[in-house]
Design goal:
- The protein is mainly alpha-helical.
- It is built from two helices and two strands; from the N terminus they run ββαα.
- The chain has helices at 38-50, 52-85; strands spanning 9-13, 22-26.
- A two-stranded antiparallel ribbon has the order 1-2.
- It is elongated.
- The protein starts with 8 loop residues before the first strand and ends with a helix.
């Protein structure tokens, strides 16, 4: 149980709820005090959901790990080959 914490959130419902029902954005404490309207907050939340950069980062991370794994196995193979030949 959390006591004394009050947060403002934006809940955006998914247009195609196959995997996700909704996305929840927690607002910063000073976000509402800066004169930002509810419509601007909702548009920003929807922009973040549909942005292509949020979908591409995971693919790059998987590719990055595969490159390091291939390099490590190549180096291990070369060391093994050198020890067998010498």
């Amino acid at each position: 149980m959390v006591k004394g914490v009050s947060r403002q959130v934006i809940v955006v419902h998914a247009p195609d709820p196959k995997l996700f029902e909704q996305a929840i954005f927690i607002l910063k404490d000073d976000a509402v005090g800066e004169g930002v309207t509810d419509e601007q907050l909702l548009k920003e939340a929807q922009r973040l959901i549909h942005s292509p950069e949020s979908q591409g980062k995971k693919r790059k991370l998987y590719l990055y790990g595969a490159v390091w794994a291939a390099g490590g196995s190549l180096l291990t193979g070369l060391v093994w080959l050198l020890t067998v030949l010498v």
